[in-house]
Every structure is written in C-alpha cells, then in structure tokens.
Amino acid sequence: MALIHILDPHVADMIAAGEVVERPASVVKELTENAFDAGAKNITVELRGGGATYIRVTDDGCGMAPEDAGVAFLRHATSKLRDERGLESIATMGFRGEALAAISAVSRVELTTRRRGDAEGTRVLLEAGEIKDMLPAGCPEGTTMIVRDLFYNTPARLKFLKSDRSEAAACVLTALRCALGRPEISVRCLRDGQEEFFSPGDGRIESCVYALLGREAASKMLACAGENGGVKVTGYVSSPAAGRGNRREQYFYCNGRFIKSALLQAALEQAYKNTLLTGRYPACALYLDMSCAAVDVNVHPAKTEVKFSDEKTVFDAVYYAALSALAGEGRSAAVEPSAGTRQMAEPKKDFYRTMTAEDFRKSGYAAAPAPRPAAPVSVPAAPRPTALREEQLRFELPVRPAETVKMPEKPETAGISAPAGSKIVENPVQNVEKFDLPDHKIVGEAMKTYLIVECGEELILIDKHAAHERMNFDRLRAQERHIMAQSLLEPVTVRPAAEDAELLEQNGALLSELGFELEPFGERDWIVRALPADMDAGEIAGALEEICEKLRRGRSLGEKQVWDEILHTVACKAAIKAGWDTTPEELERIAQEVLSGRVKYCPHGRPVAVRLSRKDLDKMFKRIV
Description:
Elements: H1 9-20, H2 24-37, E1 42-48, E2 54-59, H3 66-71, H4 99-105, E3 108-114, E4 121-127, E5 130-137, E6 142-148, H5 155-158, H6 164-181, E7 186-191, E8 194-198, H7 205-213, H8 215-219, E9 221-228, E10 231-238, E11 250-254, E12 257-259, H9 262-271, E13 284-289, E14 295-296, E15 307-308, H10 311-327, H11 339-345, E16 352-354, H12 357-362, E17 393-395, E18 424-426, E19 433-435, E20 441-446, E21 450-455, E22 458-463, H13 464-478, E23 485-494, H14 498-506, H15 508-514, E24 517-521, E25 525-532, H16 540-553, H17 559-574, H18 584-595, E26 609-613, H19 614-620
C-alpha cells in the first residue's frame, strides 16, 4: 500500500492559509493592501469582536468585473503579475495571488464590488473557499470585503487566538502601519463602532505622522531627508531626548510597503550612537524610495521581510539622513500639520496623560478602592520633575516585625573590599553592621551629575544616578518579590502599543509583585492606581514600556534572569536623575555607599566612580614628570 498520497485540495488550501493568515491582523493587512493596489483614495477598516468575528474593508478603488470576482478567490489568481519577468521589479503591494484564497479557506466571505462606469455590481458569497452564491447587486463603485467567523473550520488555529482586546489592538496597529505608509490615501479605522484613527490623505507626510502617531510624538520629531546611490530617504526621526524603551515606534517603508529590517534599524541606531542613553531607542517614520529592481520582496508570504541588492548603499542612505537631522536639531522644525489635520487629531489621547479625580468619577468606571491605613512616610524635600505633586502620593508600608540584618564577617566573601584603614563596627541604632568610613569631604557637584568627593590623597568622581540606581537595585532584590507599592490619589492612564497591551494582560501577577496596580480602562487605555515606591508618576509610561520589552526579549531566559532585568528598569526609574537638584543628605548617603565598597557598578555593569590620585593630578599639571 502506498504511503505517499496527494492531499485533498481543500486541506492543501487550509495549510497554505496558515502561512498567510496568522491572525485577524493578517486579514486586515492583506485586504488593505489590495485596496491600495486598486487605486483607492479612501479606505475604511471596521472591526468587531477583535476581528475574528467580523472584519470589513471598504474602498473606492477600481472595483472588479463579474468575471474577475468569481476567479479572484482561486489560488495564485492575481492581476498584478503575468510572468517571471514581473518578479524582477514588483511595484504593487500584492502579487502572489494567495491572500484571498487563504482568507476564504478559513472563513465566511462576502464580496460586493462594482467596476467604475458599470451599471451594476456583483455580490459573491463564499464559505470555506467555495462559492455559495454569486449574483448582480446594486452597490457603489469600489469594493467591500466582509470576513466573518475567521478560523471557524480550523479549531486548532482558533484556540491559539488571544483575547478580543489583544487581537483588536493588533488589527488597529496593522491598519495604522498601512495608513502611515501611504500619506496620499485617507484611511479610517473603526473598532466596535468607535473611531480609532483617521488619516487625512492629503499627501503630506507631516499630516500623516501627526494624525496617526499623535501630537506628543509628532512634537518631538525632526525632519529627515537624504539620498545616496539612487536611494532617497524622507520622513521624521525622534529627538535624542525622546528616546523610547523599545523599537516599537520605528516605522520603515520601502516604496510604500511597511517592512521589518535589522539593517535599517542598525543604520538608524548607529546615527544615534553617543547621543541616546543605554537601553533607549529612537522612534522614526522613514520612507525609502528606490528602484523596484533593487529590492526583493518575494522573501516571505507576509511580505514584510525584504532583501536589498546593495545593502551598504541603503545603510549609508539611512545613516547619513538621520545624522543630518540630528546635526540640525536646533534649527529643525517639529512636525507642522495643516490646520484641518490638527483640528481632526487634537481630541485624540496622547500615550500618557494625567486623569483628575473628577475625570475619573465622570468616566462611569468604578471608583478606586478605599485607601487602607498606611504608616506615615516622610517624603524627601528634593525637588524632582513629576507629573503629580509629591503631597498627592500616598505611600503604603507593610507592617513587618523588626529584623536584624547582619553583614558578612569578612566583606571579601561578599565581593566587598574594605577601604584601607577602616574597620567593621556595630551600628547601635539600626543593629546593622557597616563599614567605618574613611574621612572624606564632599567638595560639590559638577553639572548636577557628578559628585566630587575628597578622600585622603584621592579625588573621587561619582555618577550619582548610576550609584543610586545600584542602591535601589540591591534594595529591591533584598525584598524577594515583595516590592513596596505607593498608591496614587489621582489614577494615571497610559495607552500602550498593541503588543505591550497584550503583555500587560498576560503578566498582571508579575506586575503586581513589582508594585504596579493596573487594569484595563476602556478599549485601549490602562489605568494605574499604584506604582513601586520612590518611582515618580511621570516615569510610569516609560517604565511599563521598558518592562514589556524585557518580557518580550526574556521569553528564552529563565525566570530569575527576567526578574533581574525588570528590577533594573524599576531601579533606574526610581533613581536620582542627572540634572536634578539633590539634597546634601542624599549626596552624603550616596558617597558613603560608594566609599564603603558596597556600590561599585550600576546594574548594567558601568562603574559608578572614577578615582584620581594626588599623583595623577600632579602629572596633569606638570608638577611632576
């Protein structure tokens, strides 16, 4: 009996559908790109139930004739490619002829289309890839595609879909990526009847960036332009001061197609070298225009991966365009959209905003739980930039029995070297053993960043942020996953990216252990009622963004490594920042921790102090040779 047999065509179609249609967002991408290819000027994307229940994409493009509407759902049926020579220079979004066949194989599809100039249109009903009905219909010029009950006949794929909230967020992000790549086309996205975004379609990149990425993001963008070897680069890059915690806000387009490219990421980030803090990434909306023959998009069914024939030319084009934008930062104007675009986009929520108690009561959501009794905590008087006044924060301290903490008898065993001439003594007040510090004097601060300490025949420069970050990290690790939280009297809302919202939903217990108390608030926002102690309310959005990125990267790591990585972020956000005014008491505490030898490196491995001996200084001033 033969062991090898030919698969049933329907089974083969369902297998092929898995390559193209991974989730509802894949359907949104394919149908929106088909509308682009049809020459549409206005496109509407509508979602219900996260997209798995209902997706409708309407356009005013060229439409289809009745004879084409019946053939469009066959595998490898396409109007965009005729022979192998066409593969050498692909200028359309689609070309494989697989999308409609794949979508219809795993859903129920309704197509309504009318070609420009025709008296009537065509309506086609399909189920599991088979045409159930096809008849004339009255409809406007263009095409409307409705996809219902995605994966209804493939339960193995259906069970891997995430919550409606996560799937809908992914659909909205996909539609936004498509819209951002085509400023000349107006794209409207609706989710359960509510408008998510609307691009004006006036052909101006600045209007598109303002409308889709938001006012706050657009205000921190720098105009970017350049050309190298036939590769033209235009668009916007973020100011170094507006670095992000991940690469989710990097949008690259090649000939109007959204792409993911490690080469372009490397070129962009190389331009920001020595201007961005470690662990921060630039945001961008960059458009590459080049010969279609110089780029191969036939790499993956999703068509987001491409290959360039001359990678060095492309790298240099992006690198020098970004570099020139940064060099002219002082004179570069932020994104200035038209008055109509500004009026249309103004009501949209920014990624981060503060919600007042009155706003919260009017929202219709349940009020925050009644505050639990908390021990009073003195708040440092040092002025720090924060979205909320410090007296608006209520700290919660768990009541625990007093504990006696002992330092090791020999500091060398713990990786600590006692300074010369010092000894270990008992602290009679706190019952904690510590180093008897050598005599020292704080000379002052340089640039509100570096603490200058004179200690014997040495001058010690201390990075106050790095040292304080290490102190916070060690304290958090000692708490063993019971991090003290501070409740906010006025809750704060954040609007994370689609992928980040999904991670927040999946890791609620972990975030609670970190000291965050948050929950979904409306369709896209999350409300934060508590955050780790000592963290400023203004750091919430950035902290959650970085935590999500580390959760995403840490899936292949062990739980302990991921926990430590997250503690790095919490410690950094709660640390004293360069440029802040710091009280003498705080400076003294930092100096003592460094001089004792307990703090040598920040959690990222950077040294926290540099020592200059009297001899080094004498050599610098040529007192000795």
